[in-house]
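Student: I would love a firmer grasp of how sequence relates to backbone shape in proteins. Thank you; the sequence and its tokens follow:
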Amino acid sequence: MSRILPGFFLPLCSLTLFPTLAFAEDSLNTGDTAWMLVSAALVLVMLPGLALFYGGMVRSKNVLSTSMHTFAAMAIIGVQWVAIGYTLAFGGSGKFIGGFDNLFLSGITPDSLTGTIPTYVFVMFQGMFAIITPALISGAVAERMKFSTYCVFILLWATLVYDPVCHWVWGDGGWLLEHGDLDFAGGTVVHFSSGITALVLAVILGKRRGYPMERMTPHNLPMTLLGAGLLWFGWFGFNAGSALAAGSSAALAFTTTQTAAAAGALSWMIAEWIHAGKPSALGAASGIVAGLVVITPAAGFVTPGWALVMGLTAGPVCYGGVLLKHRLGYDDSLDAFGVHGVGGAWGAIATGIFATVGATGLIAGNPYQVWVQFIGLAATGVYAVVVTLILLFVLKHTMGLRINEEDEFKGLDQTAHSETGYNLF
């Protein structure tokens, strides 16, 4: 993540990547604090937005169970982050993992500052990122994974994958941070890590019963569109809040976020129009999210013009990523890998190409930055895949991964939660 530094520190561009380093002047700024409180709340709004987005895309018999994946993450990771997650990500200065300095947020008081904001605000802002990342994975397992196993999996995955990767990129002393990796708001940390994990889960779990011969169309696209709108709204806190101050960097990230989201929606509609003959509402919603995902790592590092280019490429790139499941035969139910995995990877590489603000990429004469970005993706991908495979192996032979055929036929709303999403008659 980036933060704003006093003018005499601007030549030290690499310091803009250190969210946990003290500013030259550690004093509370009420404007920055207010903005970060709002930003943290905006990111939390993305969670019910994601529940609506995913919930509308499944069949009606699974709308509640799919939404519960997101709300369960809010509960489970919300507790995990305070207990151990934050300290593993930000509590020390090791290269690969934080320490236990802030276990259960010990050592932090209301007077503690991170830069110009209270550390408690920084903890909560980062905690929203920790919650939404495993929730994104649920899109690949919708309609067929045991809810109990899912709950245990996201707890273990957040602790063993998300927290270490977060420290690599954003934590004090993290090895990718020191290597120069650029990730303003989570292209690698959030989207690529969750997207590549989603692909592993989709392959290991196997296809839904009847897929692909049976049409499994979304049951409520207006719900999905509303979810996409809430995601777009909350993403301003996600990206602009990552400046960690109410200043010019936040203003730039806000502008690039809006630009890329609009361009992503437009380019996806055009790509679908050309490929399928008609643009769809689902495609427009997916294009919005694709544009937002791709701009996330670059939001404070690129100009609005390059954000427009990134958004225009996001649509066809992620649309192609979604079509991969038909070509390769895996069942990524709600396209978590196609949008977040592929989009996160392209966003990270594109950051290395187009960065010109506070960092230099390929077009600014630094082709090495593209290689640095690739190293970050490769390390994150390999680590996430290996740990995920180990977790799934253990859980498969203890709790089991998948519901039985009868429960899948009835739907998880009834079999896992004894409820139905709609009682219209």
The chain has 14 helices and two strands.
